[in-house]
Amino acid sequence: MGQALFWFQGEDMKNIKPKQVKTLLKALEKEDYDKASEMLDAIVAKRNESLIEGVEEIAQNLHDTLENFGQDSQLLQDTKHGLPDATERLEYVMQTTEDASNKTLNAAENMIGLLESIESQTSDEKIAAYLKQAHAEMTEIMTAQSFQDLTGQVLNRVIMLVTSLEASLKDLIERSGLSLEAIPEPAQSDAERKAQQERGMGPNVTRDGKKDTVGSQDDVDAMLDDLGI
Amino acid sequence: MQIDRNMNILVVDDFSTMRRIVKNLLKELGFSKFDEADDGATAWPMIQSGKYDFIVSDWNMPEMTGIDLLRHVRADEKLKGTPFLLITAEAKRAQILEAAEAGVDGYIVKPFTAATLNGKIEKIFERVAERKKAAGG
Questions:
Q1: Is B95 part of the contact surface with chain A (CB cutoff 8 Å)?
Q2: Which domain holds residue A175?
């Protein structure tokens, strides 16, 4: 279904009364354009009727399909929670690699400055050769940071794709008459949460993941200090 | 306080870059004898040999977690006194409490600095020395 919706289909033709067409032709011959226009509208109305029926059917199917998933289905859950989470995680990767690159670049630049200071103050050829090599190694460290540009571009594309997929799915859900707001928060029992924490959950990246975490090493130290560790 | 820089250290992390970083930092602090393991499951038989004076471990690893490895060590009569430092991205308060209950000696949250590592190691071995003194050793 679908591709022929905007054209007359075989079944639609049955709705067209030969009498209406004859009347249309006669009106045209007589140059009675009011009458001709009226007849044409009547014929087209038949076509629109089946078109509307078709669209209604599609909408109903979509609604039923999504309804069958239930409010807590994986697709609805992923659309409301999983995809925004994925975006936050990717943004975390972007930010973390960028920060690390900048730190490395700063350190390399400072180091090159130090090497140049020593270079300008030594007349020893052997030391000068070592300094030159050290300088080349620092340049290597700096240029290696260009990975951030490449991986950043790739991540940006994936983030755009995920964001657009999320928007399309949300639109689809709303159009089918379901409410995004009615989709419940992800349910995790205490036991499940404990088991996950036991396994380890990696960096707490998302807003949700940051709940009940320590903000810094100082917080950890304070906690352990209280426990006598 | 004097820390024996010749002690045998086991570095456990599933990421080789992280093992490299930890090893390099420990080297800068004057330590020289390390072995590596990429999981709690590979670390445990190594530890059972009794070779190690200090264990530095990640938490989140595929086969056996660091917290599980810690519990194995603490449950073993011969090994239970081995100083154990967790270096991990796990930052939930409940997890830190759990590690404390399991008997961790130090807990460092990633990303961390060389100064933090140094501080923790000093604190850990200060306490080890105190414990030995208290035990009359």
A1: yes
A2: 74-203
